[in-house]
Design a protein that fits this description.
The structure is a homodimer.
Chain A lengths: L17 E11 L8 E17 L3 E8 L13 H13 L6 E8 L9 H16 L6 H16 L7 H6 L2 E7 L2 E6 L5 E8 L5 H7 L3 E3 H20 L2 H7 L6 H4 L6 H10 L4 E4 L6 E6 L1 H17 L4 E7 L6 E2 L2
Parallel strand pairs in A: 3-4
Antiparallel strand pairs in A: 1-2, 1-12, 2-4, 2-5, 5-6, 7-10, 7-11, 9-10
Helix pairs in contact in A: 1-2, 1-3, 2-3, 6-7
Chain lengths: 326, 326
């Protein structure tokens, strides 16, 4: 990654003093599309405040909302490391100094693309500060590098929707090929994060290396059906297609009350229900906001009864991606 | 299948004396969509002439173009067996008599859905003869049953496009869920059938029961990309997506000169190249007719040089499916 020279003219006179950026949480896999699909939501999301300072280099000034779990050391923190990488590739790391406040509005290890949201917010912020020399497509490799630093895998199914907004398809990685998919207007997500720990690495390790071809055929029939349903805004087809026969059976084991939450969601009219990313957050996909509100309410009640604390979020698909806040 | 009662009123006064039907050959899998995708072509295809006779029952009068390989016994012949099944379910098998001429315009065991084309032609013919009491959707289960009788598997990736026309997706089998996909206007198929024997059963048995999850992810990323490309008429995306990393490496072994044919096709500008169904027919997907003509010509020359006889066909995607011929 680093040592790539990015040939962009930076107008030093136009660099901003500071910028404040929001980047959205994301639901990777979109239930049936393991490692290829994902979508962004309006809330939660992370925030980066970035300040230009005289002393060259990238430094973390403060982190809020991480319970002290993220490193303040700029070389170890993914956000600052990615920002620095971009400055190096632009050839201006010896000339520009920035300091970062990172405000996490969502829990770490929630399965909602927490690290992706922070990385994307940081990279979007430095790009905005510099006068947007890079397109989103050009920022993407730095976001993927951030995922590699944070999770040990250069997956793009969280960073792609976090950066591009909407629903994204990672067609392939060699080279990275991100396709924006259409977003049916009434598609909502009701997300519940049960406060239990499921580290991404462990969740991945549970998954078997080999799968039955006949199960894979079921899975890619559903993926193809979902893509088709999105293009046609066909909610019934979307609902018929959003089943995960391969990954959910394994990962659901790590999530308390998963099948009871699923029963509640489907009974209340969800188009589909499943795990967000590697969990433990779960997501109900609905047509319209009201059903998503009702489902998250009922699921939270159920978890409370079982003495499990939780957060809930209801959101349409965020089609914008990261944005500069005023 | 049989013993289902199909509740349709047949107007005996309006039954036709005879009908002649064409049903198209099909390219199953569409290179990357094993067992779920397929499309119909304008040529080749099979023809059924059906005559109403006084004596109840279904009989085969003649078969042309099969080199004597298909049974004339009406109980053993797939076409007549499916027609009979439909008459039984309609409750009129004791009242109606039909005789069938089957004219095969394409080789058996070619990987072009030969049995599907015949079955679909037969079922479309009896439906037309009876005044079209069934919709295409209602005819579909009888077509699938025909595949089960002919191949031992009730796959629908040939019968679905043969009956519905265009490009079809089998989203799932339980229940059968067939989605028609959009057909980009300039999409052409250049098909070459090298005259070597690759029975479907053997071709299936070669395929491994288990696959690597990481390969399956590559495959379903490509499938999702292809579906997206079809909806957007994005030929570049279609081309990037149409790769089969799972099935082709195994099946290609059975097809002489496969990789040399592939090299020729891609060199001449094919969007993609691969195996049609279980082979040995191969197909070049192209933008426009001229490229497909050139590719099939060059591939046939190459095969001739290697003393392999072949047939070639160039066709746009057949969006109509079966039709009554005048």
């Amino acid at each position: 990654m680093s040592k790539n020279k990015v040939d962009k003219k930076i107008d030093f006179a136009k660099i901003l003093d500071n910028v404040r950026v929001f980047a959205p949480a994301t639901v990777a896999n979109m239930i049936c599309g393991f490692d290829i699909l994902g979508f962004a939501v309006d809330k939660p999301g992370d925030e980066v405040k970035m300040y230009r300072v005289d002393e060259p280099g990238v430094r973390i000034r403060s982190i809020e909302g991480d319970d002290g779990r993220l490193p303040l050391d700029a070389d170890k923190n993914t956000v600052s490391a990615c920002v620095k990488l971009l400055l190096v590739d632009l050839g201006i790391d010896k000339e520009i100094g920035v300091e970062i406040d990172l405000i996490k509005h969502m829990p770490i290890g929630s399965g909602l693309g927490s690290s992706s949201a922070s990385t994307v917010a940081g990279l979007f912020a430095i790009n905005a500060l510099l006068g947007n020399p890079l397109t989103k497509e050009e920022l993407m490799p730095y976001c993927v590098e951030g995922e590699r630093l944070a999770c040990g895998h250069g997956h793009a199914d969280n960073v792609a929707p976090a950066l591009m907004g909407g629903i994204t398809l990672i067609r392939g990685y060699d080279p990275l090929d991100v396709i924006k998919l259409p977003v049916p207007e009434d598609l909502y997500a009701g997300i519940v994060f049960p406060q239990v720990d499921v580290p991404t690495r462990d969740a991945r390790q549970l998954i078997k290396e080999k799968v039955l071809l006949k199960d894979a055929v079921v899975q890619w029939g559903n993926i193809a059906g979902l893509i088709s349903g999105l293009y046609q805004s066909d909610y019934a087809l979307i609902s018929r297609s959003m089943h995960d026969v391969l990954i959910e059976p394994t990962r659901a084991i790590l999530i308390p009350e998963f099948y009871e939450m699923k029963r509640i969601a489907l009974e209340e009219g969800a188009l589909s229900f499943g795990i967000s990313g590697s969990g433990p957050s779960v997501v109900a996909i609905t047509k319209g906001q009201a059903i998503a509100e009702r489902i998250t309410e009922k699921i939270q009640q159920h978890l409370t009864k079982n003495e499990i604390d939780s957060f809930k979020y209801v959101s349409s698909v965020n089609v914008e991606g990261p944005k500069v806040l005023l």
